[in-house]
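User: Run a structure prediction on this.
Assistant: Running it now.
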Amino acid sequence: MKQWVAHFHDELERRFAGESVQLVGYSMGGRLGLNAALVNPKRFKRTLLLSTSPFMTEALGSLQERQAWEAEWLKRFESDDWESLEKAWQDQAVFRHSQPQPDRRRDPPMREMLSLSLRQWSVTQHSFSADAVMALPATVDWAFGALDQKYCEVAKILRNLPVQGQIKSFENAGHRIPWETPGEVAQWVIMGGL
């Protein structure tokens, strides 16, 4: 994780030469972005985290349950035929109110990428403390789909900490906010989280 964050900040420096940028991350990408923001929050004029859980919560189950879930999916990524794999992924409770994503690339390197991503960047690999999350500046905003019951619980936890940034609810969205309410998400990004 530290290596990824260092590479990410190096890439930002290479591309933007110290200029403050806006960071938008969804789900696992939100956790990666959160790692980057914790290391250097001033690097980002705004950080927008969509459907992102900063740490293991009861809504996600126990650590043992999550590790068992990950072990099962690692096997499935490597062995299930693509149609079965995509159907089983979509049938998870977290996606109950979400439309399936468009067709993905279906080849051996994609299987390897799915497995590697889960191994390296799962929520179990991120060690954010509540204090660190509460210390994030008010420029770090959070968004959740109102139909995503699991992550609505995460939103409640963030409100109760409390975090300094805004917590937005997209009323007609489940977990896949960027695909389900793209216009509203674009407006939220452009308008500064309002």
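The chain is about 50% helix and 10% strand.
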